[in-house]
Design a protein that fits this description.
The structure holds two protein chains of two kinds. Chain A is mainly α. Chain A is built from nine helices and four strands; from the N terminus they run E-E-H-H-H-H-H-H-H-H-H-E-E. Chain A folds into two domains: 1-43, no CATH class; 58-222. The model of chain B has no long low-confidence stretch (mean pLDDT 87). Classes of the chains: A mainly alpha, B mainly alpha. The A-B interface holds A 44-47, 59-60, 63, 150, 153-154, 157-158, 162-163, 166-171, 174-175, 178, 181-182, 194-195, 198-199, 201-202, 205-206, 209 and B 3, 7-8, 10, 12-15, 17-18, 21-22, 25, 28-29, 31-33, 37-38, 41-42, 44-45, 48-49.
Chain lengths: 238, 49
């Protein structure tokens, strides 16, 4: 069971190479984590690499894992009325392009949760391997986003809703400009965890705007809460 | 961002830039009916259809 430290490509930040059985990993990794020398923070705005024991890093890992779950909840809630509920009821009437778009974008959220979970479990090695697929998948997201936007434009024009779809086209196009910027930066800084995780979070947040915009919180509040002289209270309360 | 502030008393520049960019993109709802955008959209429509 041996670990050795090797200077990474960027030069300032050592990385740990695993060369041991799984049995001794936890003990050794904790020791190595403590021994990591923080880099100069040149690209991270003063946020040097986390130095500390595995237990000390747990709250941060919990935080990012929880955010990935929250992203999934937002996608489920945002598209509940327009996609998921009709899909479950068997009344969904969307084109195959929209179905493919939904599948690909849900896949991104699944990938996001998986990657956060891998970091949470301390499996950075697997995270990096999956990340190579993630880079490819990010390009699929961009291509799919542009394809759906243009497809919806063509479909809408053919259906006589040209003005409406031409106006709306700005929304997905801007998404597909902003997402690649943060996603590309996250790839570029993939060896700097503090930058990488935050850039991925912002990139995914950009994708979530479509779901958030569809969250019908007003209808939810109206249906489940009532306003009286004593303030807002659940409708089910006596 | 709040997590960063609570734990480090400083907000990471990525979050600051991200918040500014994401907030700025919200302003696009005011531009979707503008003639400038619609002229671009019509050009894209001609290209697509």
């Amino acid at each position: 069971m041996h670990y050795f430290m090797k200077t990474s490509r960027v030069g300032a930040q050592p990385i740990i190479r695993k060369a041991s059985s799984r049995a001794g990993k936890r003990t050794i990794r904790t020791a190595c984590t403590c021994a990591i020398i923080p880099h100069d923070g040149r690209h991270s705005g003063g946020f040097a690499m986390e130095v500390g024991s595995r237990d000390r890093l747990l709250p941060k890992r919990w935080f990012y894992s929880s955010l990935s779950i929250l992203a999934a909840i937002m996608v489920a809630g945002g598209f509940w009325n327009t996609y998921w509920k009709p899909l479950i009821d068997g009344t969904l009437d969307k084109s195959w392009v929209v179905d493919l778009h939904a599948a690909v974008f849900v896949g991104w959220i699944v990938l996001f949760i998986t990657q956060a979970a891998l970091i949470f479990r301390g499996r950075t090695d697997v995270h990096r391997k999956v990340g190579k697929f993630g880079i490819f998948y990010g390009f699929v997201i961009i291509a799919m986003g542009l394809f759906v936007a243009l497809n919806q434009l063509a479909t809408g024009v053919a259906a006589g809703r040209a003005a409406e779809v031409q106006s709306f086209l700005l929304i997905p196009l801007v998404d597909m400009i902003i997402f690649p910027i943060f996603f590309g930066a996250a790839i570029y800084y993939r060896r700097e965890p503090e930058l990488h995780r935050r850039l991925m979070l912002v990139a995914t947040t950009e994708l979530l705007t479509a779901a958030v915009a569809r969250l019908d919180l007003d209808a939810y509040v109206t249906a489940h809460w009532s306003c009286s002289s004593s303030g807002w209270r659940p409708s089910t309360w006596p | 961002m709040i997590y960063d502030y609570l734990t480090k008393r400083i907000i990471h520049p990525v979050y600051v830039i991200g918040m500014i960019v994401l907030s700025a993109t919200m302003l696009r709802v005011f531009a979707i009916e503008s003639e400038a955008w619609l002229s671009i959209a019509r050009m894209i429509t001609r290209w697509v259809t």
